[in-house]
């Protein structure tokens, strides 16, 4: 029996399966994000749960470190299931300490539940992480121009961190910053793609 001949189709089948799983996870995460953006957090939970069951380490591939578990935690937070939110967000942070949205939504969850002091610290950590991420990306002379070009998000983070806000005010500000950051992910990706396409068209003429 030729073992090598048997291994080739087996490996190809495994690669095909893994590729299909990756496409499914990416599709579920994007569908979950769309559900969050359109005010359907219950639907988002279903999408993110399915994606996390296949690959709990999945991160969106947009120069960021936001994970599927961070999104799952956010969805649970939005429907008031704070214990499930906490578990998902703490798991996200255990897998990646730099997941800024996981820190931020863990803070929001704790602020709503039984540990507001730790909640404020986690929110501040998440806001600093968002600010640092945008600063890092903006330093890229090629792609940086598309991310927070008017510094609105970073300015709001600086104002929030420098202000004397009570828990309610901090929660409101953090939720708005997170929403703006989420919107920026898609807008920056779209603008960069359009710019590259325009440059390619110009060079082809």
Tell me about this structure.
By secondary structure, this protein is mainly alpha-helical. It has one domain (10-191): Serine Threonine Protein Phosphatase 5, Tetratricopeptide repeat. The protein has helices spanning 3-37, 41-54, 68-78, 82-95, 100-112, 116-138, 152-162, 167-204. The longest helix has 38 residues, at 167-204.
CATH homolog superfamily? Tetratricopeptide repeat domain
Instruction: Summarize the helix and strand pattern as letters.
Output: HHHHHHHH
Mean pLDDT: 88
Q: What's the total helix number?
A: 8
Helix content: over 70%
Strand content: under 5%
Q: What is the number of independent domains?
A: 1
DSSP summary, beta strand count:
0
Sheet with the most strands?
Answer: none
Classify the fold: give the CATH topology: Serine Threonine Protein Phosphatase 5, Tetratricopeptide repeat
Structural class: mainly alpha
Uncertain stretches of 5 or more adjacent residues: 6-19
Instruction: Name the CATH architecture.
Output: Alpha Horseshoe
Shape: globular
Radius of gyration: 20 Å
Topology:
Layout: H1 3-37, H2 41-54, H3 68-78, H4 82-95, H5 100-112, H6 116-138, H7 152-162, H8 167-204
Helix pairs in contact: 1-2, 2-3, 3-4, 3-5, 4-5, 5-6, 5-8, 6-7, 6-8, 7-8
What labels describe this entry?
mainly alpha, 0% strand, Serine Threonine Protein Phosphatase 5, Tetratricopeptide repeat, 8 helices, 205 residues
């Amino acid at each position: 029996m030729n073992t090598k001949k048997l291994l080739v189709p087996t490996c190809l089948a495994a690669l095909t399966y893994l590729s299909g799983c990756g496409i499914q996870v990416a599709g579920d995460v994007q569908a979950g994000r769309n559900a969050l953006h359109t005010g359907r957090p219950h639907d988002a939970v279903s999408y993110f749960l399915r994606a996390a069951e296949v690959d709990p380490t999945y991160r969106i591939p947009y120069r960021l470190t936001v994970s599927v578990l961070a999104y799952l935690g956010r969805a649970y937070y939005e429907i008031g299931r704070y214990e499930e939110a906490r578990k998902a967000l703490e798991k996200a942070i255990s897998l990646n300490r730099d997941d800024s949205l996981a820190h931020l939504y863990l803070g929001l969850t704790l602020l709503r539940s039984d540990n507001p002091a730790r909640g404020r610290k986690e929110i501040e950590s998440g806001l600093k992480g968002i600010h640092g991420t945008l600063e890092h990306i903006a330093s890229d002379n090629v792609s940086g121009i598309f991310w927070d070009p008017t510094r609105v998000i970073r300015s709001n983070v600086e104002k929030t961190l420098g202000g004397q806000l009570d828990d309610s005010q901090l929660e409101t500000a953090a939720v708005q910053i997170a929403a703006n950051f989420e919107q920026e992910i898609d807008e920056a990706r779209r603008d960069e793609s359009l710019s590259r396409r325009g440059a390619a068209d110009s060079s082809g003429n």
